[in-house]
Design brief:
Number of helices: 13
CATH superfamily of the largest domain: Glycogen Phosphorylase B
CATH class of the largest domain: Alpha Beta
Distance between the termini: 27 Å
Strand order of the largest sheet: 3-4-2-1-5-6-7-8
Order of helices and strands: EHEEEHHEHEHHEHEEHEHEHEHEHEH
Helix content: 25-40%
Strand content: 15-25%
Radius of gyration: 21 Å
Structural class: alpha/beta
Number of strands: 14
Number of domains: 2
CATH architecture of the largest domain: 3-Layer(aba) Sandwich
Length: 375
């Protein structure tokens, strides 16, 4: 699927100078940054002059280099982690970070023939579109996650303020030149906001790593050796289903055979909650940090199967990009989520095996673990 990363929305003859804005760039962990760095490199190798602007946990930097037929300039802004203490603190961080990204990219943005921005960090649309008269280039929004829809989906009660923000966001969306969506479910969501179909292109992420037949395989942690291992890798956040996994896994170990071990190579609030619940219940599992991109292929080839989850309110608003690499690894996939998600659309034809469990069906999840162990 790596060739999908090389699909260019830009005409080299007319749009030579490209600016891409993302969030955390490698080696910092962030799926969007990983994909945008690959996209930037692919465009540069085709002959474009690409400027990639993003964030770094360490010292900021600016590096310019030749890449294939073109050039790649990477501008990294030193930034503190996203504060999780409150919605207000996150919004203030987002506003400040977005302003810094725009200011850092301002010169290249003015000169660019094409501008590609993403949903991470969120709400860049509220700066880039109102300033559209300043940009000569075509504005393309790769809508990785929908905001503020994700904030709304995460709430138990309606918010008038978020509702007004959504109305304003949809106003600006209808003025974007072109969208890239990650799935058919996202296309349906975007069309419902009033964006014309002719402005929407489906460009899937693909796997950020390749799986050579002779490639390395990460050794299982000692406490997982010889076990049937279900791996959750990457970010486990607010959009990902927790309750079904937690209750189903406990049922598997307390009333079932207990043959499956969950490996959380993950970060995020969901991973923290599951680890806390399993530890309190005395359930066996393994927790480790996400691995760098260069080790990802080896990690994904090491378990018996992969776990992917998505809460129903987030279908069409979030597309877990990990599914591509999980499928490319030739390992079975266990998906907890809706059949309306493109995760199911992609995984149901997986030759290595696939199970889907609806959110809330914790007994179904326990049964799927038994079926996985039987394999």
């Amino acid at each position: 699927m790596m060739e999908l990363l090389e699909q260019s929305p830009f005409d080299l003859a007319k749009e030579r100078r490209i600016v891409i804005i993302a969030d955390w760039l490698p080696p910092d962990f962030g799926a969007v940054g990983q994909y945008m760095q690959l996209r930037a490199l692919a465009l540069a190798e085709q002959g474009h002059e690409v400027t990639l602007v993003g964030l770094a946990a360490g010292t900021g930097s600016k590096v310019h280099r030749k890449a294939g037929k073109g050039t790649l300039t990477e501008i990294r802004l030193s930034a503190r982690p996203v504060p999780r203490s409150s919605l207000l603190s996150r919004m203030l961080w987002t506003i400040g970070t977005n302003l810094r990204l725009i200011l850092a990219a301002f010169g290249p943005l003015r000169a660019a023939d094409g501008i590609l921005f993403t949903g991470s960090p969120p709400f860049l649309i509220h700066l880039l579109v109102p300033l559209k008269l300043l940009w000569r280039g075509r504005l393309i929004y790769r809508i990785t996650d929908f905001h503020p829809e994700c904030l709304i989906a995460a709430r138990d009660t309606p918010s008038r303020a978020l509702g007004l923000l959504l109305e304003l966001t949809n106003f600006w969306r209808r003025r974007v030149d072109c969208f890239e969506v990650l799935g058919e479910d996202q296309r349906r969501r975007l069309r419902a906001t009033g964006v014309p179909a002719g402005r929407i292109a489906l460009v899937r992420d693909g796997s950020p790593v390749t799986f050579a037949s002779e490639g390395p395989v990460e050794r299982l942690p000692e406490d997982l050796a010889g076990k049937c291992v279900l791996l959750y890798s990457g970010n486990y956040g607010v959009a990902h289903e927790i309750e079904t996994v937690a209750r189903g896994y406990e049922l598997h170990h307390k009333e079932g055979s207990g043959r499956v071990r969950l490996w959380l190579s993950a970060t995020g609030a969901g991973a923290d909650e599951i680890a806390g619940r399993f530890a309190a219940a005395g359930l066996p599992f393994h927790r480790s940090a996400p691995v760098p991109l260069e080790k990802l292929a080896g990690l994904l080839r090491s378990p018996s199967a992969h776990l992917v989850t998505l809460r129903d309110p987030f279908v069409g608003y979030v597309m877990p990009s990990k599914i591509y690499a999980c499928l490319e690894s030739q390992k079975p996939v266990l998906f907890v989520g809706s059949a309306d998600s493109d995760i199911d659309l992609l995984a149901r034809s997986a030759p290595s095996g696939y199970w889907r469990v609806s959110c809330g069906d914790f007994r179904g999840f326990a049964a799927a673990l038994e079926a996985l162990a039987d394999r």
